Amino acid sequence: MTYRTARRRFIGLTSSMALIGVLTVAGTYTQAAPHPGAYNVFPMHHFWDDLQLQTMPGDTWERLRDNLQWQHRRQDARVQQWIEHYRSNPANVVEIIERARPWMAWINEQVEARGLPGEIALMPFVESSFDPQAQSHRGAAGLWQFMPGTADALGLSRQSGYDGRLDVVASTQAALDYIELQAEQWYEGDLELSLAAYNAGAGTVNRARHAAATRGEPSDYWHLQLPGETMKYLPKLNAIAAIIADPDAYGVKLPEIDDAPAFAKVPVDKPIDLAQLANLTGMRHSDLTALNPGLTNGSANPSTAEVMLVPVEQEEAVLAELSSPSPGGVPDSDRQHFVQRGDNLSAIATQHGISVAEIRQHNGLDSDVIHEGQVLSIPRRSLAAR
């Protein structure tokens, strides 16, 4: 069973009982997108449209449909209500799904590899409108809307320059681990109850089940009395799955997405400045930052991030640059300054024999404010003159 596999991974990281203790009272409590379009922060034109991807033929939607397992839920009145809600504004549904394009095939692969229902790959639609940088008013963040405490318990670090909740690869793995772990620990493999616990916390779900049993009522998700947000959670998920299963019936035109991931994972073996890497490989800086929302200060450091994501067609160029010696490759650490506690731009400029204005311009800084752990690139001109 995949649940046991996930459990073993967690035991290797921390005490299982300690982790369960934290997660019992945790939950995303997010419902970050109460309706499609709640995160309409991006234009309809997406950076992914401009990439000439060379991926294997196939359709990620067909692959997803093959993995859907909860079709019988679509007849439930609550699911039908949300189907009607979504179909009333298909443009918003399409906009959210467009935002999923960089991530959908890869997330689908991860869900399929664990033998989980395909519906789970659509959870970010409900959680965050597929916005990797979504922030809820309660403090949850990322595609999977992890609260800080839950993220900490699951090993998603939050440090200067990096937020694991925004890292799509790390947060997806953590979310799927979390779902499997709770299903095994509390619900004898019942994933619907685990999803309810993902939203409301296992403690809330377990109390509701106990109350139902006391009343002599069924204790599955569809018969429980849970917080309103959680009662809507699975109906929403099943509703969007129904639309994905038969988009023509609901007036929705899905974007074409190949079933091979459109990004590659590149190991972070040394500090990498995203702006300079983009310049050296001919990528747009905005494309690289969009793929790496977890890198919050514009750089990747092996102390915080194991991998960074690049468009699959740029993988070879990026690996070549990262392995090339100076001066052709990405600047080595002797041309970077790692900001320490107490550093300021004036002192750093004096140390490297350049002006504050040069550092600001070279690093795209709008002010003199810098942060501990930040990586500043030092212009080559100063090094040649030293």
TrEMBL record:
GO MF annotations in UniProt: peptidoglycan lytic transglycosylase activity
Pfam families to which the protein is assigned, alphabetical: LysM, SLT
Superkingdom per UniProt: Bacteria
UniProt cross-references to InterPro entries, sorted A to Z: LysM, LysM_dom_sf, Lysozyme-like_dom_sf, Transglyc_AS, Transglycosylase_SLT_dom_1
Statement: the UniProt record of this protein carries the keyword Ubl conjugation: no
Secretion signal span: 1-32
Record's keyword annotation contains Signal: yes
GO BP: peptidoglycan metabolic process
UniProt KW keywords: Signal
GO cellular component terms given for this protein: membrane
LysM domain residues: 335-378
Protein family per UniProt: Belongs to the transglycosylase Slt family.
This protein's name: Lytic transglycosylase
Organism: Billgrantia endophytica
